[in-house]
Design goal:
mainly alpha, 4 helices, about 0% strand
Amino acid sequence: MKTSFQLITLLGFVLLLSACNKKNRFEIDTNKNRVEVKIHRFDKDLLAIDTTKLNAGVDSLYSRYRTFFSRGFWLAISSTVYKNAA
């Protein structure tokens, strides 16, 4: 019993020491992969719309964020804005 415990302890130490490696195999050199990111905030642009010129504001949002929402969403908003503006 005592020798099996010592053997298991020795095996655990060997596995622990062999796993401790200074080189990280998952490390990626990020100096080669530089990416420039521009963030456009829809929420800030939405709240910055001039309420006296809603038609132009909605058209501006649609042109900037065309791929952000489905066309049906923009048609519903623009039809509501145009009805209320008239």
